[in-house]
Prior knowledge:
The chain is an alpha/beta fold and 257 residues long. It has helices at 42-49, 72-77, 95-100, 111-116, 119-138, 154-167, 184-201, 212-218, 236-240, 243-250; strands at 2-13, 16-27, 31-35, 57-62, 65-66, 80-82, 172-176, 204-208, 221-226, 229-234. The chain has a domain at 2-83 and 172-178 and 203-250: P-loop containing nucleotide triphosphate hydrolases (Rossmann fold, 3-Layer(aba) Sandwich), CATH 3.40.50.
Amino acid sequence: MTLLAIENLTVTYRGLRAVSGVSLALQEHRIHGLIGPNGAGKTSLLNAVCGFVPLTAGRIVMTGREIQSLPAHRIAAAGIGRTFQQAEMLADQTILANVMTGAYAHRRSNFLQNLLGTRAKRRAERETRADAEAMLAAFDLLALKDEIAVNLPFGTQKKVDLARALMARPRVLMLDEPISGMNDVEARAVIEACRRITRERGVTLLVIEHNMHVIMDLAETIHVLHHGEMIAEGTPSEVQGNPLVVEAYLGPSDADA
């Protein structure tokens, strides 16, 4: 079943097309990979879907509803989350506090209750804290919950960023280079966490990743961008054998030059 459909999406910056007529469909409960050389338009595509940059043309349809005209916070509320290449931490706050902020859209207390510090507000805060601790445990970070985020290695910050994004309970989660800055052990742990997220939480993932060994092992379907256009999509084996993909990464062969 198609959960999110991107149709003929175009993004233009000052006359330059960063994304040109791209269409792709994300299937429910699956892991999709988005690859391409530097400057292919991958992050621009994610930014457009999440409402951070305007579309020049195209449609974005989530469970049958067009969302391309919604502001970013309403797109997030519709069930689309993302992480960034650089983990955006509240630097002077603890890991636990950072992860708890991801649950803002699902807090069981309203503005007035929060302002007055009512029992409903305190109960909601306890529930959010418990959920955040459970999420940290899933990423083997619970022992670090009281550490200040700015003191963390970059790879650990990326794991915190992923845990925080999941606190918003997205149906689609877009990950922009989730294992950059990690050693092999950390990267393997995040890969397994991604598989577990899809299996246990029913989250559909769209993953940008430059490590080809990782993305070919992780994703079930691969989409390939080059110069802002979709040049191939299919299973990892189909994409690896596609001559357009080989040329995009390696350049034309001597016979074609």
